User: Fold these one by one.
Assistant:
Number 1:
Amino acid sequence: MTYEEILYDFVQKDDRLIVMTAENRAAIRNLPPKLGKRFMDAGICEQTMIGMAAGLALRGRIPVVHALATFLTLRAFEFIRTDVGIGKLPVILVGGVPGFLSDGNGPTHQAIEDVAILRGIPGMQVFCPSDAEELAAGMPAILESGRPCYIRYYAGPAPVKHTAPFELGKAEILGKGSDITLMTYGFLLKEAVKAQAILERKGYSVGLINMRMLADADKAAIISAGKSTKLTVTIEDHFQTGGLYSIVSEAYMEYLYENDWGFSSTEIIRDNPPFKYNYQEDFRLAKVFPVALNQKWFKPALLDRVLDYEGFTGEKLAERIETEFLKIR
């Protein structure tokens, strides 16, 4: 089923569902005439739309709101945080053309800090589908979760055959490797698949993880990859700060704290004389190499040129990753 079909099906089954937009109907072009009063267009007023959605949610509705990702997450952030987040209301936020998908637009229209902003709200889920198939597979669980969620909307063709059923908070393991693990989300999964194939042809053992959700992120999958490979690579069309690279770093530190530094130096001296451990064997985690936008916006152009210029094509990813891997061998 398509995204529109999923929404329409839920509207038919559940009287609580309301579809809304801030004059951005790209994802729902065919729905307004079918939905009647169950569809609302707030105009170019993202803050007003979120306020309306919060009010509806307080009255038992499940609003699914649509807007350009950059304006939804930036212009309406205070309303999302205060009206939706504090009350943990089941408002579904669908952000269109996030990341590189805004290709020809300049910095004002580039949603490349959206994940960092929204995952900072307690209780907020962040879902980043890699294609239309995954988007459709995840929508039922998101709609039924009873929690707020930000969806980094993408409904392109599937770059892989998805074998794992969608589950909230679970990544999709598309392959395991002993040398390198690639971690990504959203439409860049397509380029990561290409990079994986190139690296494997060169003789490297390469795993691939489709993170799917960045809040709640699958930290067990992150740690498992860190313990089994030499290099973990995070690939994202997002600022390096606050996105997947930050999530992996946080997961690493939590793991080390729980398994290594979970007690004070006084306790170590008192209870474990002499305190010894082999870090390389007991607590080794792969080096993390971030492929992201580091303190910069991307140069606007057609999408294929953006990917090439910024170094995110499968070929350029493979080249960058191999260079980094050779440093640690």
Number 2:
Amino acid sequence: MEPLHALGYLLAALIGVSLGLIGGGGSILTVPVLVYLFGLKGGDATAFSLFIVGSTAAVSAVDYARRGEIEFKKVLLFAVPSLLAVYLMRRVVIPALPSTLLQLGGFTLSKDQAILFLFSGMMLAASIAMIRSKTESSEGEPAHPFRLGAQGFATGLITGSVGAGGGFLIVPALALVAKMPMKRAVAGSLLVIAINSLIGFSGDVQSGRVIPWSLVLTVTAIAVAGSFLGSYLGRFVSGSKLKKGFGYFVLAMGVFVLVGEILKTLD
């Protein structure tokens, strides 16, 4: 086994821990792992991450639901428009984009590079929103159902375009818009991630993408094992510390991906 692959499998466990503990971060780790350690292209990595993250999130969501920590009404108001947007992006929009989006002199921007640039930008924006939020959950009544659904649709468009489960956007949305306590936002995020990711992955399968099942299933199995540890650890961490830590984690990974893509573009 190559050293980079061994490190990739080790980090797969951290993917699961991240999802089980903070309800997000799975794709933030999965996409860089698949790109930089397993050598996959950005488009393939974002597609395969949907299955890995979606399956892992589904297992964690069942555990949270069993403990009564998922507010199903609010979550479904957010999830249904979100999954429609994800499927639209993965089945129709992304396959229709040309492989080269921009060519200006000696500079070329490929579809894969654009996806990763967008991915890092969304992480940076979401991290700042979480870090600046001062309380475990915002005071007041939750947003109107229409606004919550619109937020879900917008989130689905973004996560569908970057091939991410979207926890780095869903957790802030549920905490700040739906006014959920942080731990319930984590639980709800896992359910939305599972639905969005697996529906989005089905769009990739239908578009004819070839799936390296041996790699994908191995990473998924390791991540699922890690999710049980993350879910257990989440019982001992306060919501306010969880929110702040989540924000800084997303910020660090966003900078990592952005710098990596800039360096590749300059080569």
Number 3:
Amino acid sequence: MNKPAVLDDIDRSLISALVADGRATYATLAPAVGLSQAAVRARVQRLLDERLVIVTGRVDPASLGLGVFAFAFLEVDSEVDKTAARIAEIDEAVFAAISSGRFDLLVELRCADDRRLTETLDRVRGIAGVRRLQSATVLHYEKQDWTGIGNRHAVRRTNPAVRTGSELDEIDRLLLRELIADGRATYAALAPTVGLSQAAVRERVIDLIGGNVIRIEAHPVPEAMGIGGFSGIAVKAVGPVGPAAEAVAELAESTVVARTLGRFDVLAELWYDDHDHLAEVLDRLRAVDGIGSVDTMPYLRIAKEQFGPGSLS
């Protein structure tokens, strides 16, 4: 269950700095908030431990051969919290939000391959309380960017093209899996995982980030950024999907935008200040040529947000 966030101005400043640079060093963060590196380290660790901010690596999985990402949209006919708790026990379910609207649960799945995805979907269908499940597989991410949260006039940050999977070796893929799980994993922690020295790992990670293979992103709780909340939206396009996906990605309020195959054509996450703001954003979307239906899933509670590497094994 989510607990009310207890944050002071220093916490909020640190979270904002992590949103800007998920791997910002303690040496960089300390003078920005006027504390020692040891104090900043303790603060950041508390924020991470209490899940007030999640720092993860964001990649385009299909381009890198890192597995299959998908979303499941669930209708539940019993206590949704109990159903969500059972889903949270599944390693492949890395994110689960209890939502209002047409669907009761929005679940993000990350699986090693199509076979594992099929097995995982069947496992979810078999959970008591799940009345109906629809799914959509991620084809491509148009946008993954939390830096504009709270700024309705934020300019979209360009998503550079990722390198192709053929340019990566197995060590690169191992590092990517670890960084997806923990975007702030230290070089000392990564080194034994891949059997290289800390210096060699540092060089590899810097190259992966600098080469736009992975982007380290911080996802904060709404209270940390002074906003009302987050909502998933699912779009059915009329005609080509590209213009619809681009229109959603251009919104200052969108943080994640994915082109998907299945029940919906575009799946996105939006931030909003209040319900009036969310309604206004949705009206803007509905006015866009090429966007047909828009299903809204405001998050009531986050049941799980844990991007462990085990889901891709």
